[in-house]
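Problem: given the chain below (66 residues), write out its structure.
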Amino acid sequence: MNNDGLLRDRVAYLQVLKSRNEQQELLVLRAEKTNRTAQDDKNLNAIVKAEKASLRETKARRGPQT
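Solution.
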């Protein structure tokens, strides 16, 4: 999944959550920012990378799906 697809889907999911952690809140705020600087993009990419790792960890913890 590319970053744009992940970002769009994940932000939509996170927006409906009642409680988000700090990383998720930053992801939503940075993704919604319309006029991002190069530094904002760099930070957003780092948060997306961390969110992908978190998703992989959650999937691994659930174990194999049958």
